[in-house]
Amino acid sequence: VVLAKSLDQLVNTDMISSLNPSPEQRNPGLFVFDTSTTPPSYPAYIQPGRSVWRDYLFGKGNTTEEGDYIDLASQLGFEYTTIRGWDQWADPYTELTTLVAFADSRGVKVIVQKRTDEVDDTS
To answer: Do residues 86 and 115 make contact, with C-beta atoms less than 8 angstroms apart?
Structure first.
């Protein structure tokens, strides 16, 4: 729980960031970027942006529906669309390749996602 006397104090609290050590302190040498600067100096493959996505609540979707989300991301000026459930499509890699090309034509990048429990191997 964070308490503050004003909205400014609430928004600018450093309590959350002070709860854990920095990634570099937790895993020395694991990260190749400098986390001591503000903002941190991230490698080129880390690119901030906004994404649209279909919630699991609405099912896995299909390529037509995901194409609509790509169009929506483009119209909103968002950088990304996140596609979940793609691995359950009839021909997932072919369909995903087609969607990525479509997204590229709209200036949108694609993030594909799988739930941790779908890829976690505890053996």
So the answer is: no
pTM exceeds cut of 0.90: no
13 and 42, same domain (yes or no): yes
Which domain does 8 fall in, by range?
Answer: 1-46
Length of the chain: 123
Based on the domain organization, do 2 and 28 belong to the same domain?
A: yes
Note whether 25 and 55 are same-domain residues. Answer: no
Name which of 93, 107, 95 is nearest 66 in CA terms.
95
| CB 78 within 8 Å of CB 93 | no
Kindly report the number of other CB atoms within 10 A of residue 69's CB atom: 21
End-to-end CA distance of the chain: 38
Q: In this structure, what is the dihedral angle of CA atoms 115, 20, 1, 53, given to the nearest 10 degrees?
A: -30
Q: What is the per-residue pLDDT across 6-45, written as a single tens digit (0 to 9) for each?
A: 888 887 777 766 676 766 677 777 766 666 777 767 666 7
Are 62 and 113 found together in one domain? yes
Same domain, 62 and 20: no
